[in-house]
Amino acid sequence: xxxxxxxxxxxxxxxxxxxxxxxxxxxxxxxxxxxxxxxxxxxxxxxxxxxxxxxxxxxxxxxxxxxxxxxxxxxxxxxxxxxxxxxxxxxxxxxxxxxxxxxxxxxxxxxxxxxxxxxxxxxxxxxxxxxxxxxxxxxxxxxxxxxxxxxxxxxxxxxxxxxxxxxxxxxxxxxxxxxxxxxxxxxxxxxxxxxxxxxxxxxxxxxxxxxxxxxxxxxxxxxxxxxxxxxx
Length: 232
What we know:
Blueprint: H1 2-13, H2 15-18, H3 23-32, E1 34-38, E2 43-45, E3 53-59, E4 62-67, E5 73-79, E6 84-85, H4 88-92, E7 99-102, E8 106-112, H5 113-122, H6 124-150, H7 153-168, H8 183-190, H9 194-206, E9 210-213, E10 216-219, H10 222-231
Antiparallel strand pairs: 1-8, 2-7, 3-6, 3-8, 4-5, 4-7, 9-10
Helix pairs in contact: 5-6, 7-8, 7-10, 8-9
């Protein structure tokens, strides 16, 4: 009964991988798949740890972040259901260069990377799946690097808000971001100080682009924010 329930979870939430596996490969994944529950702000893995698992976010929100100068964190990537992460360092044969933490209470699945590597060696379609994922993530990282270093503050913060929207969408009112961000996290996503993030948010409020209520952000003019994000 437990295996049947687990197979249902995996086949529905990991359908992109499930569809390219044969029966024996599916059985091996079911036998090794572990579900984890993480609390808000709990660390999933830390920078410099040795990679052991392929992680899949099933429910919730996760951030990948790296400690910078003076201990200030930079959020380098947002994870949404259902996305895979934590495997790049294993393929590179190096420790993690960033940390992963839960934005909110989240449910994740894990597979030993030793099993994933063995499956890849015997399944060309699975190999191409991870090549595609790594290539897409590298392209996104290149774009983010340029944007965070060349855009002005308003452009960086507008882009961060659009990244949040594109990753997690709106709540049922079709205006409020479906994620509650602290000013510090917004700053860490935008490559700016917390004080600059607060001032820029206030500027967006004064321009009637958004409404801020604590950690809730309601977008009033999405096209204008996207324009600011694009042209910086």
